[in-house]
Amino acid sequence: MRHGRCWGILVGLGLCLSAAAAGAQPQMLPTQAQNSKNQEVTSTANAAVSVTLTAPTGTRAHLYAFAARCSAGTAAVTIADGGTTIWSSSAALISTTTTAVTWPLGLVGGRGQNLVVTLGACGGTALGTLSVQGDVF
Fold first, then answer.
1. DSSP symbol at 123
2. Does residue 82 surpass a pLDDT of 60?
3. Which helix (H) or strand (E) holds 10?
4. Where residue 111 falls among pLDDT bands split at 50, 70, 90?
5. Element containing residue 117 per DSSP (H, E)
6. Partner residues linked to 79 by β-bridges
7. Angle at Cα 42 formed by Cα 121 and Cα 136, nearest 5°?
8. Pick from 105, 98, 130: which is nearest to 117 by CA?
9. What is the four-CA torsion angle of 32, 56, 134, 79, rounded to 10 degrees?
10. What would the pLDDT profile of 41-59 be if each residue is shown by its tens digit?
11. 8-state DSSP, 130
12. What is the widest separation between alpha-carbon atoms in the chain?
């Protein structure tokens, strides 16, 4: 009889400790300040267009992919982390066929630094379209 009572106490203690440990951990949810996680923007004629993933203090922007196209002509894409270019394409990477670039684990910006993805001007009267998939947490 004693043995059964001790077992019940140990099981109850284990449940209490596991519940306390789970509740003590802070909840971390991805957020994106003032930006939706996925955005698509189109430029005006012969103008660059960009998407900014805004990272508030203590968070990082994560870029998973972008896709871009020009209605005519060609353009380059650059990605800046807090004003410093961390990735750039060739001058003619983007053309009239949609080109996609992905980072399966995400291209991660510095803590509290915005990631800015910019599609350069396509030239002439051409429009550029830039789609970005990312988040901030």
1. S
2. yes
3. helix 2-24
4. very high
5. strand 115-119
6. 87, 117
7. 100
8. 130
9. 150
10. 999 999 999 999 999 999 9
11. E
12. 89
Quick one: which of 47, 48, 82, 51 has its CA closest to 64?
Answer: 51
* DSSP for 48-104, written as a single string: -EEEEE---TT--EEEEEEEEEESSS-B-EEEEETTEEEEE--TTSB-SS-EEEEEE
Residues 6+ apart with CB under 8 A from 49: 41, 42, 43, 118, 119, 128, 129, 130
Position of tokens 């306390």? 20
Q: Judging by DSSP bridges, how do beta strands 38-42 and 49-53 pair with one another?
A: unpaired
13 SS3 class? helix
Q: Which two tokens stand for residue 123?
A: 């030239």
Q: How far is CA 15 from CA 23, 27, 101, 123, in A?
A: 12, 20, 47, 65
* Residue pair 85/78 in contact by the 8 Å Cβ criterion: yes
